[in-house]
Write a structure and sequence with these properties.
Layout: H1 3-6, H2 10-21, H3 28-35, H4 39-51, E1 55-58, E2 62-65, H5 67-89, H6 95-105, H7 111-120
Helix pairs in contact: 2-5, 3-4, 5-6, 5-7
Amino acid sequence: MTPEDLGLTARDCRYLRLLRDSESGLSPTEIAREFRVRLPTAISALKRLEGMGLVEYRRGEGVTLTPEGLSVSEELLWRHRVIESFLCEELGIDSETACEAATRLEMLLPRDSLVRLCERMGHPRVCPHGRPIPHPEVVP
């Protein structure tokens, strides 16, 4: 499943990104603190993601991505970094502005458009910040 198929919101994407970047599971309290929201707000978002099969909560271990959640978060990362690279390399936008714009655009552009964009750019290996770009199965 792709992020588009799941109907992810921008908030969902932020939660998945945070969990992907954590070394181990995070508690709902840590997640609420990170996003500066109340605990019930974080729990509501996590339950939504759990209902989609993207996260799992284990008492004492925290919230972690499921294999499907990891796959979706990898695609989100790919989307973000490809857009960011395009904005910097092709349009000359500075990396911080490009990063902010990529965050807004990553779920708005259809997957097939991003596949074509990535192909046109020669499947870049790193983003403007020097971080690797994961290339999931990008053939539609």
